[in-house]
């Protein structure tokens, strides 16, 4: 094939780009998700290929063919997942043939293997399965060792530019081994050497606009590095991405930018290598030979869940108690009944007593507490009844002092609970600093 890839040799597009097209009307409903594209993106990135587009198309020959034509115009590699089965709504083969204006032929070897597959199961093969032996003219068959639908790879050209078209089965248990064992080695031989380097900085509880205002003057100087700012779940993520024919050069470039941004944001950055906030807190505790216990009310164990999701968290996190009622606040954390009656369960006094009580009860170096009103209704009769939804107190106690942080959070119940746990982890992090 003498044609060149459409973007790989263009100085303004120094990397080959791909589009992933998931075929299947079921993925346009609330009941199914396209998870294959996440796997495929990681695999293609390993090969130095940037995934620029992801498309989901229903079971329509016209729509699939249109999606294929669009992808062929704008990308170098087009990867289809799904639509290779035996039923009438499996239309990927026909759609790609239409988009490229080429034919399909029935492969005798594949047809024979299909008959053998059903015979081995002592089953008669339905007539509609024969369409799984239809191969694009000029395509290479990719043997599927798990399922009945073989994959296909077509190395072709459009308007003088080389295009690689991959047709892969939809079930992940078939697609993943087929790509890893068959497709990836083939692409590694075909594609020019290219490496992608990434860095990720994470910052909790800081407005996206503030991060951008402070970091834009830095990252805008690096025109060869793609910067993406993502906000959500109580943190800001800064993603840096670049590519080069030499991996060390690409990595050095993103590392330089990340270091400059980290110097600007200082202790607002909790992770410079992508670690989660809970991972960082546990590492800091372990490095200081400290242990932690938690008494949670409105978060209902969410803080403990986040911590224990990290492997080997027991080295630093001893456990704790969900003290949702006043009775359990007294029983498990030794909060005096009269304190709860006088000040209310959602109060700085009770938050302080919870943190101190759980620390002493468990023998932990640090005790942390979360008590608040997550809604949707107000507190029980008494001092908490008139307090606003979103009022949360976090207590943090060691053997010298106890600090209490007051929060006034806006949002629904799940939002308040998550942000309360995020504030608790960040309070721990900043205290340990």
Give the CATH level 1 class of the largest domain.
Answer: Alpha Beta
Based on DSSP secondary structure assignment, what is the total number of beta strands? 17
Structural class by secondary-structure content: alpha/beta
Low-confidence stretches: 1-13
Question: What would the principal axes of the Cα set say about the shape?
Answer: elongated
As for the CATH topology of the largest domain, it is: Molybdenum Cofactor Biosythetic Enzyme, Chain A
Describe this structure in words.
The protein is α/β, with parallel strands linked by helices. The protein has 13 helices and 17 strands. The chain has 3 domains: 4-190, Molybdenum Cofactor Biosythetic Enzyme, Chain A (3-Layer(aba) Sandwich), CATH 3.40.980.10; 195-268, 2-Layer Sandwich (Alpha-Beta Plaits); 277-432, Maf protein (Alpha-Beta Complex). The strands form 4 sheets. Strands 1, 2, 3, 4, 7, 8 and 9 form a 7-stranded mixed sheet that branches.
């Amino acid at each position: 094939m003498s044609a060149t890839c459409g973007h790989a040799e263009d100085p303004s597009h120094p990397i080959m780009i791909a589009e992933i097209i998931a075929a299947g009307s079921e993925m346009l409903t609330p009941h199914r998700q396209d998870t294959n594209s996440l796997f495929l993106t990681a695999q293609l990135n390993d090969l130095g290929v940037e995934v620029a587009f992801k498309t989901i198309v229903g079971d329509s020959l016209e729509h699939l063919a249109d999606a294929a034509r669009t992808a062929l115009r704008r990308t170098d590699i087009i990867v289809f997942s799904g639509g290779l089965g035996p039923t009438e709504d499996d239309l990927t083969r026909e759609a790609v043939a239409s988009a490229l204006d080429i034919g399909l032929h029935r492969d005798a070897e594949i047809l024979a293997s299909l008959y053998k597959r059903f015979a081995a199961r002592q089953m008669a093969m339905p007539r509609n399965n024969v369409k799984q032996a239809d191969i694009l003219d000029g395509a290479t068959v990719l043997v599927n060792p798990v399922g009945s639908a073989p994959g296909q790879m077509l190395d072709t050209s459009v308007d003088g530019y080389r295009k690689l078209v991959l047709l892969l089965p939809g079930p992940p248990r078939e697609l993943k081994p087929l790509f890893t064992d068959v497709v990836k080695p083939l692409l590694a031989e075909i594609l020019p050497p290219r490496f992608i380097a990434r860095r990720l900085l994470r910052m909790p509880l800081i407005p996206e606009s503030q991060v951008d205002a402070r970091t834009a003057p830095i990252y805008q100087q690096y025109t060869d590095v793609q910067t993406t700012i993502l906000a959500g779940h109580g943190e800001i993520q800064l993603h840096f991405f670049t590519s080069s024919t030499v991996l060390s050069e690409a990595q050095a470039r993103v590392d330089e930018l990340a270091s400059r941004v980290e110097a600007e944001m200082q202790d607002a950055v909790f992770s410079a290598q992508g670690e989660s906030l809970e991972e960082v807190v546990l590492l800091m505790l372990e490095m200081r030979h400290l242990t932690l216990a938690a008494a949670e009310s409105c978060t209902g164990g969410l803080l403990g869940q986040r911590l224990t999701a990290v492997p080997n968290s027991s080295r630093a996190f001893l456990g704790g108690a969900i003290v949702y009622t006043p009775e359990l606040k007294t029983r498990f954390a030794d909060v005096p009944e009269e304190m709860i009656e006088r000040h209310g369960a959602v109060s700085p006094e009770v938050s302080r007593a919870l943190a101190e009580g759980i620390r002493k009860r468990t023998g932990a170096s640090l005790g942390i507490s979360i008590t608040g009103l997550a809604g949707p209704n107000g507190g029980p009769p008494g001092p908490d009844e008139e307090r606003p939804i979103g009022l949360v107190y976090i207590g943090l106690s060691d053997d010298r002092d106890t600090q209490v942080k007051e929060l006034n959070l806006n949002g629904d119940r799940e939002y308040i609970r998550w942000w309360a746990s995020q504030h608790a982890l960040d309070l721990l992090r900043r205290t340990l600093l």
